[in-house]
Amino acid sequence: MKLLVISQSRNRAGRTVQVRKEVTADWVRVGRNASSEVLLADPRIALNQGLIVDRNGPVYTEGEMGTMTSTTRKAVRSVRLSPGTSVDIGPYKVTAIATPAGFSGAITVELLRPPENVAPEFLARAGKLTLASLRLPKRTTALALFALVAIVFFLLPAGRILDLPWQQPTSMAMASDRFWNPGPVILAHQPVELKCEACHQVAFQQVRDGACLECHAKIGHHVGEDLKPAALFAGTRCAECHRDHKGVKTTHRDDDRFCADCHRDVRSRANGAQSQNASDFAKDHPAFRLTLPAGKGMRRVRQSGVPIEEASNLVFTHAVHLDPAGVKHPDKGRVKLACDACHHPDASRRGFEPVSMRRDCQACHRLEFEPATSSRQVPHGAPAEAVTVVREFYANLALNGTNDSFEKAFGVPGTGLLRRPGPPTDEARRAALALAEGKADRVARELFGSRIAASGRKSEQVSDELFEVRVCRTCHEITQQDGPDGVQWGVAEVRQNHRWMPQARFDHKSHAQSKCADCHDVAKSKRSADVAMPTIEGCRECHGGSVPAEKKVTSNCLLCHGFHEQKHPWDPQFKPKAATRVAEGAAVAR
After folding, report:
1. What are the residue boundaries of the structural domains of the chain, listed by start?
2. Which of 502, 546, 535 lies closest to 281, judged by CA?
3. For residue 483, what are the β-bridge partners?
């Protein structure tokens, strides 16, 4: 409907002033509410006093007050607004007038009894409560409210966080945090987000540790079994450190308090602890401790200024590979290498993939053993197979070699036995076999590398060269022992260390703006035993403690450390991390 509303009032001269307003709506609201199309701004009017609807013409009906609406003739609950009809709505008079063209109806609204003509007691009851009506002094009230806000919103929260000398320890850091404020769960818990009973097994009780362990059954203790973690952490609940419904990224607390409480004087809390005291990275943190392979297990060595050496069983120097003049490449001449030539980020870009012979080394370190006649290479990582390949190659050459290949391989003119005219004699067979085996053994010794045996057999000479002079010993520690079939070569197990600090987390992706050499000084490393891990002093150049400092990254304990114990891969008790079992009902539609 389209309604013309004319508001009438009188100025000081007694003249009538009109304000016209066109309203287009399914129905027209009348009342004190600011959203009303016909606004009657008087405390004696209800917020939603009534409605004007189109029922073959405008009709006014009563609203929330339930009072009778009076007209010039009688009191009614609704009235059709025909031209000339008047309706008294509180102190206002609404009169229907002739409908102009293009409108569904027209009304005039006039205030007959202004508020100054109303008793003060009525206005006080209908108006808003003011400070003056309470007869309170403004300055005293303001100071009291300021003190209340300071205590409730500053002093009390600060008292729960600061370590005050008179504060007694409690079993929970946030003991009074008991109000219900559910929010989004972390991403890992979203499969059971609608299955509340997976965690909240008993109504109106805190989440129990058993509910957590149903899925996280393989989670490690904070310390080893020898320190009796069950007794050390008696009364400590999972939920004291892990709170869900606080965001989608993580559940653990993000402050140092629950770490520093024990680690500030760790040996007084746990007899037999090997850790040193730590409470703040910038002010109270020991030197880093590195984990190195040792025998069939591992050893942990703390950095102390004395160079640390590792036994990886590799013969390798960074200084040679990072030579500014470059390294010799079989096809490209001299090539300059950088760190990323051998060290490739893993899928997460937090760490690096293990160095691979085929991907990272073999382009330069080819395993060819007879480059004059063939580009064939021996298999990597299998000494017995390498010897077999060499012997088979020279045996085939002794039988089927052409003039050129035979002479280049064995150093004497001739052809393969089967290429000669006539049937081979026994003497020729023995000579060909001796020639092939002598060469193969010599090449094998070259591969694994130390000395060349004085032997007349070509296979033996080449095996010697292969194992002991030019290929394998270039990068590996070689073992050999005499056996019933001659010398048995072996390669010492390569022990690449990918987790120097298993109790710490480090994200290379977050440090991508830095150069590798900023943390790892390897350009002058001339031995494979050199360890080029950064020291705590190097990290402190950029990282501060838990207290913000200028030009430092604020770093609390959880930035680098976790809580639950993790074994190192070199530890004999190491077991791969088990996959978390998802509770039944994970497929509930979200």
Report:
1. 2-126, 383-491
2. 546
3. 486
Q: Which CATH class is domain 2-126?
A: mainly beta
Which residues lie below 8 Å from residue 262, measured CB to CB, with a gap of 6+?
269, 270
538: number of Cβ within 10 Å? 15
Amino acid identity of residue 326, one-letter, is: G
**Residue given tokens 């003497």 in the structure block:** 427
Q: Is the pTM of this model over 0.70?
A: no
Which residues, in sequence order, are CB contacts of 410 under 8 Å at separation 6+?
Answer: 397, 398, 435, 439, 458
- Amino acid letter, residue 13: A
539's CB contacts (< 8 A; 6+ apart) are: none
Fill in the DSSP letter of residue 151.
I
Q: Is 277 helix (H, G, I), strand (E, B) or coil?
A: coil
Q: Model confidence over 350-401: pLDDT tens digits?
A: 889 989 999 999 888 888 888 888 888 888 888 888 888 888 888 887 777 6
Over its C-alpha atoms, the chain yields an Rg (Å, rounded) of: 45
Q: State pLDDT tens for residues 419-454.
A: 677 676 677 777 877 887 777 777 777 766 543 333
- Quickly count: other Cβ atoms within 10 Å of residue 99's Cβ: 18
Q: How confident is the model at residue 410 (pLDDT cuts 50, 70, 90)?
A: confident
Instruction: For tokens 């990282």, name the residue.
Output: 543
DSSP string across 226-240 = GG-HHHHTTT--GGG
